[in-house]
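Cross-posted from the bioinformatics board.
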Amino acid sequence: MANVNLKKLAGELNLSVSTVSKALMNSHEISIETKERVLLLAKQLNYIPNPYASSLRRKTSKTIAVVIPEVADSFFSIAINGIESIAQDKGYHVLIYLTHENFLKEKAILNDFQSGRVDGVLMSVTSETVDTVHIHDLCSRGFPVIFFDRVCEDIETAKITTDDFESSYKATKHLIECGCHKIAFLSFSKSLSISNKRMEGYKQALADNKIKSTDADLIYCTNDDAYNYTLLKTVMAQKKHPDGIIASVEKLTTTIYLVCKELKRAIPRDVKIVSFSNLQSALILNPALTTITQPAFEMGQAAATVLFKALEKSSFNLKKEKYVIPSTLIIRDSTRMAL
Amino acid sequence: MANVNLKKLAGELNLSVSTVSKALMNSHEISIETKERVLLLAKQLNYIPNPYASSLRRKTSKTIAVVIPEVADSFFSIAINGIESIAQDKGYHVLIYLTHENFLKEKAILNDFQSGRVDGVLMSVTSETVDTVHIHDLCSRGFPVIFFDRVCEDIETAKITTDDFESSYKATKHLIECGCHKIAFLSFSKSLSISNKRMEGYKQALADNKIKSTDADLIYCTNDDAYNYTLLKTVMAQKKHPDGIIASVEKLTTTIYLVCKELKRAIPRDVKIVSFSNLQSALILNPALTTITQPAFEMGQAAATVLFKALEKSSFNLKKEKYVIPSTLIIRDSTRMAL
DNA sequence: TTTATTTACGAAACCGTTTTCGGGAATCAG
DNA sequence: CTGATTCCCGAAAACGGTTTCGTAAATAAA
């Protein structure tokens, strides 16, 4: 492929390889005239340096990794957008790895990073991740790890999150103010801190409003849509079904809507629904969905920005970097009182 | 980072670097006992080869690129899923590049591939791409380029598409059968072949059913949501507004729904809508959206599969590879007659 | 026994950069 | 005029693998 390299340029110009290299790097050791000669020919021949030779020598790859559970989720899609926008600015390349919520995959992917393939990683852990030695290993080697959204509590490194507790609290309070008495919380992982924080916000709001919380109202969904469907169906089929629901993850929205449709539970009359979601189509749903919308793009940008700060200054202390970017509760028809 | 390398292993084992390397590659030149010794120590010390040293020497990177307009679109998200699933199987890494429908970005990104950074590219061109020399350049150097979804007609290489003409024809016919007489087509690019094929299918269906097509019914939307909103608003505000609409791209769905809501045009009573879309939430929209759903995951997988065939056999002729995976028309409430 | 072949390994070149080091020529200070 | 700097460049080592080639020893063939 890349047929024109430094040696070729050097040959054409009657210069040494090292001189050409330095000229291209705008080194002060090289005279202006020589630099111009080199630049000119390099442009003419469309010289493009071999990134792998360069990475090998410099021990930096100008590449970062993004490790996420999946990409078919608008939060992660939009976050990638934010990450990529910063990376492109900085001239970095971004490798994408999907774990599909599989812990072993996550482990294998991170293990590979010891090879020096990437200069740092932005990640959201899987819902299965409880053991964190694979991440700890990387961190202890000084490898930059930045968590965004789904963080590991027990690892001290940069974390970009949203205000999960507070926004969940607000959403729950909103449901209560709308007259809900029996509010269910749809969790999707027992281990994920993000899921637990949201649950805590929910519980706190109930407590503050003197509503007793039952464990029966905590619905543990999984990554399996079919399973979730039957689970939610049994929940909503009960005579004393919840009159308010908080879905702690976007993908549960479709399921709960379908269940309500099937069971002829009218939203918001029979049950009011609010969901953590970044779906652009939330406002054209039937009915329009009240959402807690996470600042996905901003979180992606923030994560990338922090990483690049660390890459630019090796003394940069990632452990101190904690950013909490607030989510916004957008009230729509699915929680409307008079309808 | 990667402190344990071949030299280290060789030292510990009293072997030469070349022997260790060959042992790890399971070369026949190395005795079984030596191989076992090497493998054991490599595992113990968690040896991970430096990918860049290897790429430099072998002139292959075990990395592919995916170049797409954006990722916050369910078609592309799902397609990435398909691509990544195959790549992970094959032990390849995938670099993501977003063009944001910007031709110059696309050009710069592809130009960089001459460096040997990636072994091949899967791409969907921008809506601005008319000049295709940058792609031609790569192809003529024998660099594997696989188009998926948004292809360039004038470039002979592997193409994975869906049946844009036929599915658009079917959708239009469906609208006609639902009693629509004035059907508008929402295009999003004058140059994109995919957009034009869909338009042709639409026109053909009109012609076959003796409905005269007016240029006024071809609505050219852009990448700017706000612009599209006002454009569609003026269209739908007319007294003789369309009674049927085909949205040729997913992102226009939200816009047209909002416009109808704003203008109190009832769907499907006043206007019936069908959209090219992979939104999972289509069936819980207000009303549920009739879609032409593209086989995004399968297209991604197919594209990756073709690429890996080419990478495994250098004699593989990409020019002959054309796959058309059909879309499916899913009829829902937004085109229902009696409502 | 001699010759040919196989087996198992090491030395060294190589991939294309970057970077250190050294040195000749020119410029400057004394 | 001599010595110290500065300017500009090239030789060579280095990065960490892979691959070619050579070769000593063991084995097979003649």
